[in-house]
Amino acid sequence: MIPRLALSALLAFGLQLAVANEAASDDPRIGLALGSGGAAGLAHIAILRVFDEQGIRPVRIAGTSIGAIIGGLYAAGLSADEIEALFAEFGGSGLELIGNLASGENGVHLSDLLDLDLDDGGVVDPAAFLDYLRSKVDARRFSDLEIPMLMVATSYYEGKPVVIDEGDLFEAMRASMAVPGLFPPVERAGQVLVDGGISDPLPWGLLGDDLDYRIAVDVSGQRERPADGELPANELLFKTFELMQQSIIRARREADPPDLLLRPETEGIRLLHFHRVDEIIEQAGPAADRLTEFLTTHSSSSSSSSSQP
């Protein structure tokens, strides 16, 4: 039997060791919000690559639409490089809103991944695309993820955001990316769900208060005046959708700003330009550099403060 004094000393030593181990970590607790924005959301890959390079893992991710897809793949264990390779593979050809879906040179055909679906509330059916994503990861449900993840959709009839953090991972992705007029809505748990960007395009508010920093990545796009002065109808439709998203983000930023808001450049990128992954990631370089500086500075600050008596 261990004497009471020795037991007390042993417990005290264990507590000191646990505190010391926690203090020894230089990594701040970071929550990461990845926003909605169609193909411009491929810029999220450049941001995730910084986390990989710094050896820092977000402790929680919240994503909307393309942010839900890329965030979900990352939370499932794929690296930024692997996610880039995945999109480079399926996006080997351009995708137009309606019309001919051309073949990519790498043998993966967008016409195989996105089927026309005019009778079900959308233009294309993303089922085959989601099957393709499913084939790239082992995770099937939120409980399989390495990083806790929240995905945002919008309840069509209630007009409110719906946060999904359990159940089928790919059903949640499908709901979060259901852009009205492009992808059909999703029926889930008695609700009709459409794209989360309608109600919460950049969900840093979901990340919680138990974090050192909340980092949000806004890929809601830019509008450029066309050289010929013509605005195609489909371009006007989706750019107006982006305007709505930016208004929501601006209002929420004024009320409760994240610790770091990154806005990668997406000049010349339209909703479905997934074949331009290299260009999009290159444009995101300055935003990635800002994140590198932020993480380097604040990890050093954490280390310095933890060494104080």
In short:
This protein has 309 residues and is α/β, with parallel strands linked by helices. Helices cover 41% and strands 14% of the residues.
Structural overview:
The chain has 309 residues and is an alpha/beta fold. It is 41% helix and 14% strand. The protein has a single domain, classed as Cytosolic phospholipase A2 catalytic domain (3-Layer(aba) Sandwich), CATH 3.40.1090.10. The protein has helices at residues 4-24, 43-54, 66-75, 80-90, 110-113, 127-134, 169-176, 233-255, 277-283, 285-306; strands at residues 30-34, 60-64, 115-116, 124-125, 149-155, 160-164, 186-188, 191-195, 213-217, 260-262. The strands form 2 sheets. Strands 1, 2, 5, 6, 7, 8, 9 and 10 form an 8-stranded mixed sheet that branches. The protein has a two-stranded antiparallel sheet with strand order 3-4. A hairpin with a 4-residue loop joins strand 5 (149-155) and strand 6. Helix 2 runs antiparallel to helix 4 (80-90), helix 2 packs across helix 9 (277-283) and helix 2 (43-54) runs parallel beside helix 10. The two termini are 35 Å apart.
CATH topology: Cytosolic phospholipase A2 catalytic domain
Cα-based radius of gyration, to the nearest Å: 21 Å
Q: What's the CATH H-level homologous superfamily?
A: Cytosolic phospholipase A2 catalytic domain
Structural class: alpha/beta
Q: How much strand content do the residues show?
A: 5-15%
Helix content range: 40-55%
* Series of H and E elements: HEHEHHHEEHEEHEEEHEHH
What is the approximate shape?
Answer: globular
